[in-house]
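New to this. Please check this fold:
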Amino acid sequence: MSAKRPLALVLGCAGPRLLPEEKAFFRDADPFGFILFRRNVETPEQVRALVADLRDSVGRDAPVLIDQEGGRVARLRPPHWPELPAAARIGALGDDAPHAAWLHGRLLAAMLSDLGIDVDCAPVADVPVPGAHDVIGDRAFAGDPARVALLAAAQAEGLLDGGVLPVVKHIPGHGRAFADSHLELPVVTTPLAELDAWDFAPFKALAGLPLAMVAHVVYTAIDPDRPASVSPQVIGQIVRDAIGFDGLLFSDDLSMQALSGSVGDRTAAVLAAGCDIALHCNGKMDEMRDAVARAAPLTQLAGERWERAQAQRRPVPPAAEAAGLRAALADLLAGRMA
């Protein structure tokens, strides 16, 4: 990390090409990194150019994130990119599931590294419960904490083996939410002992991963007034202490309706609560200006966490390996021996 620390923000842009106004804004604001969505992708050549332009705007090799889980959460889609299954499809493969999860992560990494994208917002380590909102649903590997932990770890290892850093989400657990945090604030009233034994368990097993994203969910047993992303109690007592995660912590998207107040207020709140990085995804310039006005530079501790994450980065393997891996995953999904 250079002596001048970037702002503790990850930002999006409006479309598939970086506008002159955006380039100047990013140059002056110097956010930590960037995130891409469907509105930003057209073809592989276009995405590579956009990624390069984003990094050029801040004059350094800034991280570029994307949500590419497979299934319904996939920003890169056919015809230019292969379709990969949702996590639940992997989880249903019985004894073959761990290898399939590794293959899944490795193929996700191959897709992203080809474009210069170096951080994937996966794996999902949430454990759904019966009756919960489908916002997680088939994005989860299974309904059992131990199996979720096993398969999320395998997928994360596949991403790392492919040269891409994984972001485990949504710590300390979104699977019990009965509302979609994109639209409203979920409130979980489950006792702490049950949360600890069930919801937090996969995240404890994955605490050594370098990056995580915290949920916009209220856990009344810990902080009845604030969602986890803006709660010093949840982040300090649960994420950092009980779960033991000491990696770089991102907020979930600041533009989600689970949070209240202006985008600037939300930015200040997640950083004050203990998130290392505030994540703002929609690329709307007025909101980004508000976020930048209330953000702070990356802390020294956050910089050290990012350096540790970088140290876990592995070389990108040859692109030609992907075809064989894709065939092996297809065999497992079809019930054939790989």
